[in-house]
Amino acid sequence: MMKVIKYAFQRHGDDRGMLVALEEGKEIPFEVKRVYYMYDTVTGVRRGFHAHKCLQQILICVHGFCKIHLDNGRGETAEVDLNTPFEGLYISNDMWREMYDFSSDAVLMVLASELYDEADYIRNYDDFVKYVEENRHE
Q1: Hey, CA dihedral for 17, 11, 116, 95, is it positive or negative?
Q2: Secondary element (H or E) of residue 49
Q3: DSSP state of 129
Q4: SS3 assignment, position 134
Q5: Which of 13, 45, 95, 118 is least surrounded by Cβ atoms within 10 Å, i.e. has the fewest?
Q6: Phi-psi category of 39—alpha, beta or left, where left has phi over 0 and alpha has psi -120 to 50?
């Protein structure tokens, strides 16, 4: 059964505002080797359309909101709303992902367990399903 994992990060704040601190090994379950973010995403655009062989990620919509479509390649899917800057969505390496319905002010930050490596991407959905089937016992 497909499991969606969302982290609620601890918030610290007072009348001056709010702060969220993230540390690998505490709030982040892997070593962070890369951080990137998306913004100014055009209305109606879907992003992602891939899975990874090794890379793990945590997605945090630090401003605005967006939705994430997850597919495990075994017929199970989930739609996840990201709409608070103190929640993160964990995405394992063997999960197809698509990001969509970005608000005009959305900033989606991604914490990644690996450096960019094109060879780690699976960009064709049929290839992804085949990969999942071939590696289901590993």
Answers
A1: negative
A2: strand 47-52
A3: H
A4: helix
A5: 118
A6: beta
Residues assigned a catalytic role = 50
Task: Please tell me the distance from the alpha carbon of residue 19 to that of residue 14, in angstroms, as a whole number.
Answer: 9
Q: Using 50, 70 and 90 to split pLDDT, how confident is the model at 137?
A: low
Which uninterrupted H or E stretch holds 5? Answer: strand 5-8
User: Mean pLDDT, the chain, as a whole number?
Assistant: 94
Asked if residue 112 lies in contact with residue 31, where contact means CB atoms within 8 angstroms, the answer is: no
Q: What's the rounded Cα separation, in Å, for the pair 102 and 97?
A: 15
Phi and psi, residue 40, nearest 5°: 55, 35
For the entire predicted model, the pTM comes to 0.92
Per the CB < 8 A criterion, the answer to whether 80 and 100 are in contact is no
- How far apart CA 49 and CA 25 sit, in angstroms, is 29
75 Cβ partners below 8 Å, 6+ apart?
A: none
Q: How far apart are CA 108 and CA 41, in angstroms?
A: 10
